[in-house]
Amino acid sequence: MSGKAQTNWLATVLVAGICAAIGFGAVYVMTGGGDNQARLAGGGEVAARGPASVRESVGATTSDAGKAAGKPVDRAAGRAEEKGADEGGAKATAAASGADSAFKGPNGERLNRGAMTTFVFKKTPMDLPDDVTFNDKAGQAVSLDQFAGKVVLLNLWATWCAPCRKEMPDLDRLQADLGGDRFEVVAVSLDRGSADKARAFLNEIGVKRLRFFHDPEAKLGFKLMAIGMPTTLLIDAKGREIGRLVGPAEWHSEDAKKLIRSVLAAQAS
């Protein structure tokens, strides 16, 4: 390469370098300069958070939608809108899950709390299958329809289920306290085959108030879609399920009695 050509080549490279430096400086200033570089060096915060963070870092006050009109960003309003959306979503979720019970306590409080926290109310009372039957102590078929006009606490249990055995005395005491013309605890054993084992267990623990009922084919669990043992359904005077509790519970607690009394009061009104 001649001396003149070499000089021209060096000049071209120099000019290109200057232009590149100027261009980089402009971009550097527009995107927040050293502040953004420090953030990137500290873990790539800006890259992770995106363009909105870049605009914040240089103090931008225009929104994407109103940028041309120069409208200021109302960040407080934006936060309020997001909060409202979150609260609305939470309320919608609660409504969809039936968390707000139709039955309330004397002061408007929720009834499924305390010892009844795991009781789940239906959003509306649900019809049960027509053929809900089981045997009485004499081995005669009994239909759930025969309890029409009563609020029924239908408990599905078995002697092989330890939590069922534990809660049985509470169910007997609940029947002693609230049982009568308007309410009955109906505890149905799902022990397959003979009723002797279930009957012997109830005699052993001194059950006195509960009537004996037995499902020798253990079909009720499937028919009533019970997903665990014990499962207890609260049924209104029209034979519809108001709600259920899966697992053991303190059925003689004040929380349980308050829930049942409130349902009885609502049925009477």
Describe the protein:
About 33% of the residues have low confidence. Helix content is 43%, strand content 16%. The radius of gyration is 36 Å and the shape is globular. It is built from nine helices and eight strands. The chain is of the alpha/beta class and 269 residues long.
Overview features:
269 residues; alpha/beta; 6-stranded mixed β-sheet; two-stranded antiparallel sheet; 9 helices; 8 strands; 43% helix; 16% strand
Summed up, what is this model?
This protein has 269 residues and is of the alpha/beta class. It is built from 9 helices and 8 strands.
Tell how many strands the DSSP assignment holds: 8
What structural category characterises the helix and strand content? alpha/beta
The largest sheet has its strands arranged as 1-8-7-4-5-6
**Through-space gap between termini:** 108 Å
What form results from the Cα inertia axes? globular
Largest sheet: 6 strands, mixed
Strand content: 15-25%
Total of helices: 9
Q: Uncertain runs with pLDDT below 50, 5 residues or more?
A: 9-73, 78-101
Helix content: 40-55%
What's the structural blueprint in terms of helices and strands?
Blueprint: H1 3-30, H2 33-41, H3 45-49, H4 51-57, H5 75-96, E1 120-127, E2 133-135, E3 141-143, E4 151-157, H6 162-178, E5 183-189, H7 196-204, E6 213-214, H8 220-223, E7 231-235, E8 240-246, H9 254-268
Parallel strand pairs: 4-5, 5-6
Antiparallel strand pairs: 1-8, 2-3, 4-7, 7-8
